[in-house]
Design goal:
The protein is mainly α and 240 residues long. It contains seven helices and no strands. α3 packs antiparallel against α4 and α6 runs antiparallel to α7. The longest helix is centred in the N-terminal third of the chain and has 29 residues. It is an enzyme of class 1 (oxidoreductase).
Length: 240
Amino acid sequence: MALAEQFLLDALAYLECALGFVSYVLLRVVGSPYGRYASPQSAFPVPARAAWVLQELPSLALPLLACAGARAERLNRWPNCILLGMFLIHYAQRTLIFSLLIRGGKPTPLYSFVLAFVFCTYNGYLQSRYLSQYAVYSDDWVTDPRFLTGFVLWLAGLLINIHSDHVLRNLRKPGETGYKIPRGGLFEYISAANYFGEVVEWCGYALASWSIQGWAFALFTFCTLVTRAQQHHQYVLKHF
């Protein structure tokens, strides 16, 4: 049974890699239906705050369930605990903090919400199950250069992402509408600093985990967010 699930987790990781490439191609063709790029005629829009909480929730709940499980065999090892903690910290911030700080926010199309919920369930199961049951690390993995470099990248990406979200939330004063070019932090150098931070974060996580499961997540994140970043950059060039 254990071997069968381990094979399943590897297969799901490779499938996630393939889905990342497919998503890249599709998003390059049709664009990302998100935020200001979503059609105002989209059927069954989901309020922004509710959409963020519900779609991100599986990636928070599933690792917590893995931690609470009586048979979380690998969580007696520091590398597994730290890696799962890195995953949990991101999604706790996304689900419980970021979503509550949203000011207004455009509704999310139902199909975008459903796809995000499915992905968070899929990837939440993949990462939490692998780290809690099957990932084998020696205790000194936490001193390995790959782990240390990955952890620093993860932390830097997390902080960039949080700071960039703060800048975006405070772009407009109460009552103001329309888009403004964000200033401060990495927005002085790149137009989508928030996406850049998240890509760096998960590449760091992948390096620290040194697993196909971690790299699959990083690749999928890169493929989806780089298309959003390109779309946004073209919008900025066109309108400003």
